[in-house]
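User: Run a structure prediction on this.
Assistant: Running it now.
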Amino acid sequence: MSHKNRVIDFIKFDRSLTGAKQLYNSLPNKSLSFLGSFNRMRDTEADRKLVAYHLCKAVGLEERQMLALWGTKVQSQPEEEKEQPEMVVVDFPGTPLEKILSLNPATASWKEIQELAGALSDDSERDPKGRKKVDLLAFIKSERELAIVETSKEVPIEVKKTIKLREQFPFLREKDCPDILKLLVNEMITAYEKYKAGRSQLFNSLTAEEEALLSRDIVDNFIENKEAFAELEHYKNNGQILGAHPIFEAQKIKEELDALNAEELSLKASALRKNISTNKKKSEAADNVEDQAKYDAAVELYSWQSQYVKSLLKKK
């Protein structure tokens, strides 16, 4: 089936954010910046319609065709015709990382932070810059990132067997499963795919700058995969959402923006444009990879908020 027909069928039979992300990720003309905005979307008519527009745009369907399709009711698709992509996650080799990944800085006690920093210092023969809590947490973060990259270099990529998520987390099949957890599944799979692709590049000849950027990406995707997996495990064991993954913070921001009136949204739009411009300039002027990544992340954060505010203003 052609990409165009797959998009048409999606609008006819599905229209879910979960299905949209899986489909959009498979399209050759996808926009990576828009792909990254999925985890900040809510299951609203406006967001679903926005996704449909970008799907159609990626396969060459005109907006009038999309609107004509969108104007029809969602049809029931025969069960045998539904594509059920295999959802898998790899349990990353974590033996050297277990001590580091076991600590949650937000909930850890001062004693736990001290003990872990001391153990890591003994193992690595490196010392924190100071003895304050902020110094120890910075040291733990640095050691964690280094361990992730080093483990990625040392262990073969196909080291662990893949696990079918719907078998491990049966609640994903249930009708009352929160949509946001289904989105998390896609986040986890995407993070693993990016992590795996990044690992393979580590063995290429890279400059110090290229390896630093790639390592940053590998670390982020490794941690994102772990955070999403932790959310699913928590819901499986407790029947409640943990809410620690960044996707929930994005949802909270959207809810706050939804509550603004037209005048407040206009002021917010102006402030966001200023924040985007400021952080772009800081990114261009940054003299190290970490600062550049920090400012780029801020640009991305403010950019999706700006787009969302624009969509809200159109409805006012």
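Residues 4 and 59 are 5 Å apart (CA to CA).
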